[in-house]
Design goal:
lyase, globular, L-fuculose-1-phosphate Aldolase, Aldolase_class_II_sugar_metab, 209 residues, Class II aldolase/adducin family protein, Aldolase_II/adducin_N, 7-stranded mixed beta sheet, alpha+beta
């Protein structure tokens, strides 16, 4: 059962992500698995000022809204990631400032591991080509990218991160943005961690789960 308390909590988290500066206006969307259902921000809604009336209650398997609210057009990849990964309960699409700059770069970084937080908290970032928002091609590319990754950079579009809960996702999104800020502000004069150091951090990450 989806309760009013669940919807209020979802709205509070959406506002939290907005306050963190992760999106402008309607540029982001959010989903949260609750049992066999998922709460999804409504199409065209603004996460920073989301209200309960703009939250769709969807069946995770069918993707259909059960409360008459039309979910975000990106709900296909939100629910698709949840179907593919039982460990994922929250999916966030956002467009933070520096990560979106990197998404628009002609030559994307080969590695985002500029600080230890990236391999430890974010993991390897999948980079996918540009596809039209809301398209089946975009949805499938994100789903495919997130089978083995917790973060995806969508070229000329934005970012997607997933995780077990809202804190996990917020941390992942903020460290993703921090890495991109370092990459952009350094004007390419940055150094990434060595392969051995990255592997050690990945092992620490896996052991901490």
């Amino acid at each position: 059962m989806i309760t009013e308390e669940s919807i209020e909590y979802f709205v509070t988290q959406a506002h939290r992500y907005g306050e963190a500066g992760l999106m402008l206006c309607s540029s982001g969307n959010l989903s949260w698995r609750v049992g066999e259902k998922a709460l999804v921000s409504g199409t065209g809604s603004w996460l920073p000022v989301l209200t309960g009336e703009r939250v769709a209650v969807c069946d995770v398997v069918s993707g259909l809204s059960e409360n008459g609210v039309r979910p975000s057009m990106e709900s296909v990849f939100h629910l698709g990631v949840m179907r593919e990964r039982a460990d994922v309960n929250v999916v966030l699409h956002f467009q933070s400032e520096y990560a979106t700059v990197v998404a628009c770069m002609k030559e994307k970084p080969e590695s985002f591991n500029v600080t230890l937080e990236v391999p430890y908290h974010v993991g390897e970032i999948a980079v996918i080509p540009y596809y039209c928002p809301g398209s089946p091609e975009l949805a499938q590319a994100v789903i495919d990218g997130m089978r083995e990754h917790d973060a995806v950079l969508m070229s000329n579009h934005g970012q997607v991160v997933c995780g077990k809960d809202f804190d996990d996702v917020l941390q992942r999104a903020l460290f993703f943005e921090m890495a991109c800020r370092i990459i952009v502000q350094s004007r390419g004069r940055y150094e990434v961690l060595g392969k051995k150091d990255v592997e050690n951090l990945k092992r620490l990450r896996l052991n901490s789960r």
